[in-house]
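Now for today's protein.

===
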Amino acid sequence: MVLSYPPFLTPYAAEVTIILVFIDGLLFGLALKKAFVSVVLIMVALVIAYFLGLTFVPNISLGTIVQQVMAYSSSVHFGTLIVSFTIVVFFIGLGLGLWKG
């Protein structure tokens, strides 16, 4: 996909693209950090509910959940990843979003 810039931004297309990729990585990093915190808080809530004797989803044990996560994680493949400058900038933004988010 080729971005189409307005005529006044055409001379700065490369710089604008790099800035947009960085901001995109930053936003993804912020979202991932918030998602991670949410997952941790849900896990804590489920453990507390387990100790209190509350069941939200019957017939599911911790062993079943771990088994399903391991089966899924072993089937994920990324293939070949070509590292370019835009990917590096994206990961820098992603790292800053995770760190400062």
Notes: The mean pLDDT is 79. Residues 13-52 form the longest helix (40 residues). The chain has one domain: 12-75+83-100.
